[in-house]
DUF1572 domain-containing protein
Amino acid sequence: MQTEYIKSIKKQFEYYKLVGEKTFEQLEDKDLFWQYNENSNTIAIIVNHLWGNMKSRWTDFLISDGEKTWRERDLEFETVIKTRSELIQKWNDGWQCLFEALATINDVNFETKIYIRNQEHSIIEAVNRQLTHYAYHIGQMVYIGKMLKADNWQSLTIPKGKSKMYNQEKFSKGKHK
């Protein structure tokens, strides 16, 4: 059960990482820094926040509180990232930290209690909390991308109006993993 859960959750994290990357690929550099208004986040700010959260939550995942004393969360919402290459570097650094931490979870330590801001979580609760948090923010990035690209946006999932065709193709192949 534990092994299947970790395998499944890793697949979900990989999916959302890919969705973010496919969003970046469709955007020009300037789009990564576009801001609807002064109270909204740019894609670069969202990436900086995700990076800060990932580094805090996943560093020493099994042995220390997920809210590290060195984390400066408020700074994550400032314009810190200035270039696409900085954005990609932080994006990859955060995900690497996450995947390395997931790799440390096994049948022996699966019952370890995880703390986030001094609140106890099971490993499943802590991991699910992060998955939903990241999906939320990656969805924001996609939405910004769709607004900016408008009719030039290439769908990352099933394109609008194409559900029947997609399902026909999937069901024509028979059951598969």
